[in-house]
């Protein structure tokens, strides 16, 4: 299996956990890839495993890099596509984003017998997004490694999820900073609970400004705070039981934002006291993922416990989208 096939397999595994090939699960196929790269059969242990790893460690790291470079962007796009515009670029490229100019042309009166009108041009704005290196250092216990119990596939999946959640935190932080900077009439403050009339009026204003329909975004808990006080029909109750929230409210789509925990903390990453009103097709955050995922070796002899260790790093940039049209309703 070449690197292109490995990248495709990694991406396919993200989108379909039940993937199978010739009655083998996709996870088992990926495990076979690692043993093939090590040049030993599954079940190899002890000195034979250590020797194989020392001979082929950089090929193992290449597989990890290839798998993560394919899977992380797929995960970020799949999970946060409603909120973020994700751009995947090469090492030497610049993350350049376009801010769409939503201003309408001014229609003016033309005096009879003249063509005296000021020319107008629709100019979009461009800006570049800087990226920074972020990483995670992982290791495996020597005894576990020598017993052949190191699950490289699980390592790849855990690292992907870690970066995916990290990008999600940065997206939510950018959104929070952006809506904290908003003011009336695009920010509605509520006391105790969401004021339905205020939220609907905000949606109408954002729709008029953007000249487009809007949707209301929030966690499942936040969406239920908005609709909890309305009288529900049997169909609405069935819908809520099926999805956990109503998917439409007064003709406006309600879209649940995936909740997550802050890195290393037992604390929700997203507030359940805020609702975002966003025009259809509008993204309020830009994300840049730059280059390949790099896997850097740290020799086991550098540690008293002789634990095989490596550093995984990726260049990431996240920022609130400049000039994005959106509104927020918050409970104070």
- Rounded Rg: 25 Å
| Largest beta-sheet details | 6 strands, mixed
User: Alpha-carbon distance between the termini?
Assistant: 55 Å
Shape: elongated
Could you give the order of strands across the largest sheet? Answer: 7-14-11-8-10-9
- Number of helical segments? 8
Summarize model confidence as the mean pLDDT.
85
Helix content: 25-40%
Q: Report low-confidence residues grouped into runs of 5 or more.
A: none
State the total count of DSSP E strands: 14
Helix/strand order, N-terminal first: HEEHHEEEEHHEHEHHEEEEEE
SSE-based structural type: alpha+beta
β-strand amount: 15-25%
Please explain how this structure is put together.
The protein has 332 residues and is α+β, with helices and mostly antiparallel strands. The chain has eight helices and 14 strands. The strands form four sheets. It has a six-stranded mixed sheet with strand order 7-14-11-8-10-9. A four-stranded mixed sheet has the order 3-12-13-6. A two-stranded antiparallel sheet has the order 1-2. Strand 9 (248-249) and strand 10 form a beta hairpin. The chain starts with a helix and ends with a strand. The mean pLDDT is 85.
Ordered list of secondary-structure elements with their pairings:
Blueprint: H1 3-15, E1 20-21, E2 24-25, H2 26-38, H3 46-80, E3 84-89, E4 95-99, E5 125-129, E6 132-139, H4 142-146, H5 152-180, E7 187-190, H6 196-210, E8 214-218, H7 220-227, H8 234-243, E9 248-249, E10 252-256, E11 274-279, E12 285-298, E13 309-320, E14 327-331
Parallel strand pairs: 3-12, 7-14, 8-10
Antiparallel strand pairs: 1-2, 4-5, 6-13, 8-11, 9-10, 11-14, 12-13
């Amino acid at each position: 299996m070449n690197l292109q096939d490995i990248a495709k397999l990694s991406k396919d595994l993200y989108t379909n956990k039940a993937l199978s090939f010739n009655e083998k699960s996709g996870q088992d196929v990926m495990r076979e890839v690692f043993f093939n790269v090590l040049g030993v059969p599954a079940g190899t242990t002890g000195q034979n495993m250590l020797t194989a790893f020392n001979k082929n460690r950089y090929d193992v790291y290449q597989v990890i890099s290839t798998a993560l470079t394919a899977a992380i962007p797929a995960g970020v796009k799949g999970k946060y596509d409603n909120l973020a515009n994700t751009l995947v670029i090469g090492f030497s490229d610049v993350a350049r984003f376009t801010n769409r100019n939503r201003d309408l042309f001014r229609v003016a009166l033309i005096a009879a017998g003249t063509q005296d009108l000021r020319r107008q041009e629709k100019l979009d704005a461009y800006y570049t997004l800087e990226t920074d290196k972020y990483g995670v250092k992982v290791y495996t216990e020597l005894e576990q490694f020598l017993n052949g119990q190191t699950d490289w596939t699980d390592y790849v999946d855990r690292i992907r999820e870690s970066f995916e959640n990290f990008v999600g935190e940065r997206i939510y932080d950018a959104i929070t900073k952006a809506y904290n900077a908003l003011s009336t009439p695009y920010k509605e403050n509520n006391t105790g609970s969401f004021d339905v009339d205020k939220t609907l009026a905000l949606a109408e204003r954002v729709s008029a400004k953007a000249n487009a329909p809007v949707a209301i975004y929030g966690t499942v808990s936040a969406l239920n705070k908005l609709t909890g006080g309305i009288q529900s029909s049997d169909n609405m109750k069935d819908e809520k039981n099926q999805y956990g929230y109503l998917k439409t409210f007064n003709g406006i789509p309600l879209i649940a934002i995936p909740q997550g925990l802050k890195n290393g903390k037992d604390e929700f990453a997203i507030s359940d006291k805020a609702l975002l009103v966003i025009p259809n097709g509008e993204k309020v955050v830009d994300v840049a993922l730059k280059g390949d995922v790099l896997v850097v070796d740290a020799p086991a002899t550098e540690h008293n416990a002789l634990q095989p260790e490596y550093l995984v790093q990726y260049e990431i940039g996240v920022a609130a989208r400049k000039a994005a049209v959106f509104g927020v309703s918050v409970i104070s």
